[in-house]
Amino acid sequence: MAAAVGTKAREHIEARKSSAATRLQLEFSQEAYERLLELKKVTGSRTNAEVIRKALHILDWVLAKKRDNYQLQLVKDDQVRDVELVM
Which domain holds residue 76? Predict the structure, then answer.
């Protein structure tokens, strides 16, 4: 019986790997979860996963620009501030 359950579990995992999406379970503090929900609302995202995908896209873009020696600046009216992201 245990072997059959193990086989079924492996088959389920293999089926999940071959699908277009991968399921991921995350743990958030209450504060982080509330922030996620706020970002979901502000960005008009339909799901929490969409918020995470958008955040990953932005982080990937910023890191690519940093690798290419670009500098990040905040510009407001005539004020320009250099920003350094430490990661």
Answer: 2-83
- The amino acid occupying position 38 is E
CA distance 39 to 50: 10
Alpha-carbon distance of 10 to 54, in angstroms, equals: 31
Residue type, 65: K
Q: Supply the pTM of this predicted model.
A: 0.69
List all residues 6 or more positions away from 40 whose beta carbon is below 8 Å from its beta carbon: 47, 48, 50, 51
Identity of the amino acid at 73:
Q
The total domain count for the chain is 1
Q: Give the mean model confidence (pLDDT) for residues 4-32.
A: 73
If residue 1 lies in a helix (H) or strand (E), which one and from where to where? none
